[in-house]
Amino acid sequence: MNDIHQSSINRLPQNHRQKTFPNGTLIIERIERGSDDGEYRCQVTSESNVASADTFIRVLVAPLINPFHSPPNLREGMRVMLTCSVVEGDPPLMIQFLKDGTSISMKQQQTTSALVENHHMKFDRTNDYSATLFIESVTNEDSGNYSCIVSNNAAIATYSIFMKVNVPPKWIIMPKDIEAIEGQNIAIDCSATGDSRVWWERAYEKSLSPPMHSKSTLLLMKNGGNHNISKQQQSPTMNHFRTVVSNSHIHTAENGSLIFRDIQYDDSGTYLCQANNGVGSGLSKVIKLKVHVPAYFKNKFSSQTVRHGESVEWSCEVNGEQTIDLQISKDRMILDFVPINNNEDNSLKSNSDTKILHSDNRYNLIRKLQNDHLVSYIIRIDQVDRRDSSLFTCVASNPYGKDEYNFQLIVQEPPEPPENLHALEIESRNAVIAWSQPYSGNSPIVAYHVEYRLWMDSSTSWSNVHHTSNQSTIVEHNTAAMMSKSLLPGTIYRKTLPGTETSINLRSLQPMSTYEIRVQAENQIGFGSFQLTPLKIMTKEEAPSGPPLNIRVFPISAHTLQISFQPPRLENQNGQILGYYVGYKAVDLDEHFMFKKILEDNNNRSIQLKEINITDLRRATKYVIIVQAFNRIGPGPQSEEIVGETLINDPPKAPVLTSINVGYNNVELNWSIETMDDSFDGGLHVSSKLDVPEITGYYLYSKSPQGEWEERHINSEENSFKYNNLLCGNQYQVNI
Question: Hey, is 573 helix, strand or coil?
Fold first, then answer.
């Protein structure tokens, strides 16, 4: 293959747009009519032969549309002509208009013009190279994208424009007067057509300051009507509008709505909504916003503490639009207040809005109107007591809402006596006393005071005991030293406990004794009272804790010792003494004590000196004597050892005294005595010489009527005696 050339025998390439390749390909870039159309030959030459082929190239021209534009500032009602002209391109040409991508259909007529189905549009084609779209009176609906499409055998050409019809705004939602309740979230709708900018303004009154006492008449007219408004002695005002600035409370939404969050009474007023898109004078509408205030309390809760017998008052201040109804309840029970009678106290009659509680004239309700939106209700209670410790609720209501205010009244007083005073455990020397926490008087109990005493029939009444600093019968029983001592009869002991404890262990009590116990509570207000009837308990019995007292040993005979003693001290008896054990043993013998049991005689229990004879003892022998008391629980401690010795002989029997001669001033006495000892073994044994007592003398005792006893020692050999110089006619006592 040697070359490629045109029919004019011009070898290719001839310019920079033509390129040939070894494989016989010819490329012509940016082909042009006039220079590139014509006949082309491709010739292939070899050593033995030459071959060629011819082809003809015809260059077609695509349509080229002359740019067209929409009229500037196009307004509704204006005429529009859009001419699409083709400045280049091979005929035949087909010209078509599209709106927003949709073909504008036309009805063919015999003329060169065609009517679009939309009656205000007209399509006109006066030659083969141009076409015009006529719009007689544009509207907002004619706004959009318009395209002219031209096609021929070579290509399709398109040219598009956007046509905007500026239309004055029209109301989509026209704002209206509105009423709202304070605290609500509301939206006042305002929207208009035509891509309008919507904004809100608020009116503020501005005084024009007319002359004093002037009378102004304002004439308002609309559509032929008029309204006369006269104001006497008032300064005329005018509305001065200011743009509403958006904030967290009020702002204008994108759709033009004016939105209030938590609307307030101060938001009431005149508002102006305006819409404008630059076409015409725009739209505006004045509306009235009225915000109603529901009944409400600024404070929802408060409390007050008062002491019993004081007076108290508190106020329920109700805010809101009149008329407001108020209902007061006590612990959710409605209180029925009624107007006071004419015969009530003058201080109450002066206020016509004062009421008194139907069931309790200590309660007063006073109504005071502070301003158009504030009413104060004062509740007063005289001489409060425990019944008044309650939750009081003021419920206020009007047509726009209701609210409540709670007031907690706390009446404090000294606490009541502790309840359920009882003994948990009773032993011989201690007792655990418990009680239940009483009514505290609305003040924390800080201490309990326990008083107790040993009860006796002669005990003073508790009502005569006064708690004064110089009261000698009341002793604080809180120290360890005091607790270790026994309680003295008639003494009142007082112990203080923390208010968190409700039991006490009373120690150092006396066994088998009756105690009276009472408890009082104390709070920050003061001391409460004791129980009307104190608790009475009796401790348990225990064995005597002390020995019998004043033990004496007397030899009665050679075989008998008489033991005398007194009972243990009363505080050591620890119960009723049932009897005594008297122990004895010979000193010279290593043996155990022998005991003799003596039972207490209930008929002679009051006799303090007890006596017992120990018989069958050995003559002239020393004996160790011990005594111990016992009760129902058992024996007590033994007494100290006392030593007694039996006689060598039994003492002689009493002589027999007789008078042998009586004169007017003298008397002679004679006596005789038996010498046999028959007291041992009941006189059943045989007498011995040791049993015969050796008489060493006599003692003669005499007493005159006005004198003292006189003693005379008489020789054992004598057996008579004569008294001389006696007074005649007097009685004398004599024994031997």
Answer: helix
Residue 115 confidence (pLDDT) = 52
In this structure, the strands spanning 144-151 and 113-116 are: unpaired
The 10s digit of each residue's pLDDT in 530-554 is 999 999 999 999 999 999 999 999 9
Number of Cβ within 10 Å of residue 234's Cβ equals 12
Structure tokens at 35: 């220079």
DSSP 571: H
Assigned token pair, 63: 């349509």
> Are 145 and 101 a contacting pair, CB within 8 Å?
yes
Q: Under CATH, to which class is 3-57 assigned?
A: mainly beta
pLDDT at residue 248 is higher than 70: yes
According to CATH, the topology of domain 656-735 is Immunoglobulin-like (2.60.40)
Nearest to 647 by CA among 576, 575, 588, 560: 560
pTM of the model: 0.56
Q: pLDDT over 70 for what percent of the chain?
A: 83
**pLDDT at residue 105 in the model:** 63
Rounded to whole angstroms, the Cα distance separating 137 from 165 reads 11
Per DSSP, which regions of 413-555 are E strands? 419-426, 431-436, 445-454, 474-476, 492-498, 503-506, 514-523, 535-538, 549-555
Q: Sheet containing 178-181: which strands, arranged edge to edge?
A: 178-181, 283-292, 269-276, 197-207, 237-243
Give CATH for domain 64-163.
2.60.40.10
Q: Tell me the fold of 171-210+232-292.
A: Immunoglobulin-like (2.60.40)
Q: What is the pLDDT of residue 693?
A: 64
β strands within 477-513, DSSP E: 492-498, 503-506
301-412: which CATH topology? Immunoglobulin-like (2.60.40)
Tokens 């007074």 sit on residue: 727
Q: Mean pLDDT in the chain?
A: 84
Whether the upstream peptide bond of residue 102 has omega within 30° of 0, thus cis, is no
- pLDDT band at residue 139 under the 50/70/90 scheme: confident
CB 405 within 8 A of CB 328: no
Q: What is the pLDDT of residue 419?
A: 94
Please tell me if the domain spanning 64-163 has the same topology as the one spanning 549-645.
yes
pLDDT band at residue 348 using 50, 70 and 90 as cut-offs: very low
Residue spans per domain, the chain: 3-57, 64-163, 171-210+232-292, 301-412, 419-459+472-538, 549-645, 656-735
Pairing state of beta strands 337-339 and 474-476?
A: unpaired
C-alpha dihedral (686, 690, 691, 694), degrees to nearest 10: 150
The C-alpha atoms of residue 169 and residue 179 are separated, in whole angstroms, by 27
How many angstroms separate the Cα of 280 from the Cα of each of 170, 274, 653, 711? 11, 13, 165, 163
CA distance 496 to 504: 10
Domain 419-459+472-538, what architecture? Answer: Sandwich (2.60)
Amino acid at 124: D
pLDDT at residue number 691: 52
Q: What radius of gyration do the chain's Cα atoms show?
A: 70
Contact between 566 and 554 under an 8 Å Cβ cutoff? The reply is no
Strands of 58-120 (E only): list them.
64-66, 80-88, 94-99, 102-103, 106-107, 113-116
C-beta neighbour count of 364 within 10 angstroms: 22
* Nearest alpha carbon to residue 89 among 132, 134, 149: 149
The three-class DSSP label of residue 223 is coil
In whole angstroms, what is the distance from residue 378 CA to residue 707 CA? 100
Domain boundaries 549-645, corresponding CATH code: 2.60.40.10
